[in-house]
Design brief:
The structure holds 2 protein chains of 2 kinds.
Chain A (H helix, E strand, L loop, with lengths): L1 H26 L15 H30 L7 H22 L11 H27 L3 H36 L1
Chain B lengths: L2 H19 L7 H14 L5 E2 H7 L5 H13 L3 E5 L7 E5 L1 H20 L1
Antiparallel strand pairs in B: 1-3, 2-3
The chains are: A mainly alpha, B mainly alpha.
Chain lengths: 179, 116
């Protein structure tokens, strides 16, 4: 039973990741520096939310989700397993580092809007540094430029997702009150 | 606490933080009184001078009113605009945030009336 519940959570994360990843490519095709580096990367918000709520299950979901989108889009850069590992482990490390830095407990009891934005910033930094370090080692790409673009894209993307969720919550509350 | 109960609690805490992203900056009771007082001028399209506000608020000392006015400015609820003819005179103007704050309060009042 426990296994079944966990499987549902992982499949849910894979679906949300894959859909938002493809939507991001569709909407912001013009805003990509190259096929892997985007000026706006909304799926970064999915990484943060998944890892905060589902912890290790979030990592597994993101790992499998990244593998799917890697092959779906016909990427050939780097080793897919390592790319997926970086994509999934990084937010986990960043969230735990932020938790330590912001002195948050296991349940994120005192998580505020400001702290959430700080977590997004730290996650974007971790993600861009690790990804670009790996790509730099593999293909000797422009490290500093791509890291900066990826950092900006990840942070901006997570802000878009989090603020959209906030507006959606407000709208749902408004509808519920007027119903 | 079970694993799923923890997940649910984290979800609630995260939802609360996400909800706060688009929340209005919180006002203290004194600041709320002051902005309501100011709004009584703005709804009548009257210009309100800083010195008038400081001297006309009966429930607080001028120093407290001025301190609260500065806090409202820091939180983005008011702007202080200098008079073009006399640099010593400043007017208190509402910002977009204040306009939507009172607009929201008005909508909430209508909702509560519809509920009864």
């Amino acid at each position: 039973m426990e296994l079944k519940k966990n499987a549902i959570i992982i499949i849910g994360i894979i679906i949300v990741w894959a859909l938002i990843y493809q939507l991001n490519i569709f909407l912001f095709k013009e805003f990509s520096s190259n096929r892997f580096v985007h000026w706006i990367f909304i799926p970064q918000g999915v990484r943060i939310v998944s890892v905060i709520i589902f912890a290790e299950l979030g990592v597994i979901g993101l790992f499998l989700g990244t593998l799917i989108t890697y092959f779906w889009n016909g990427f050939t850069i780097g080793n897919p397993l390592i790319v997926a590992l970086i994509s999934s482990i990084n937010p986990y490390l960043a969230v735990h580092f932020s938790r330590y830095l912001l002195k948050l407990d296991n349940l994120f009891t005192r998580l505020s809007a400001e702290k959430l934005l700080l977590i997004s910033l730290i996650s974007a930094l971790f993600n861009s540094l690790f990804h670009q370090f790996y790509f730099h080692m593999r293909i000797n790409a422009g490290f500093s430029r791509d890291t900066a673009v990826m950092f900006f894209g990840d942070f901006f993307g997570s802000l878009i997702l989090l603020y959209s969720m906030s507006i959606a919550l407000r709208w749902i509350k408004f509808k519920y009150r007027t119903a | 606490m079970t694993k799923h109960a923890s997940m649910y609690q984290i979800f609630l805490n995260l939802t609360h933080a996400i909800d706060d992203l688009t929340e209005f900056p919180k006002l203290s009771p004194d600041e709320r009184c002051l902005i309501r007082h100011l709004n009584s001028y703005w709804v009548k399209k009257q210009e309100v001078k800083v010195v008038e506000v400081i001297n006309n608020v009966a429930y607080s000392s001028p120093a407290t009113v001025f301190r609260n006015l500065k806090k409202l400015r820091q939180k983005g609820y008011v702007e202080l605009l200098m008079d073009s003819r006399d640099n010593r005179v400043k007017f208190v103007q509402p910002t977009e945030l204040t306009i939507s704050y009172f607009d929201n309060l008005g909508k909430l009042m209508l909702q509560s009336l519809q509920g009864h």
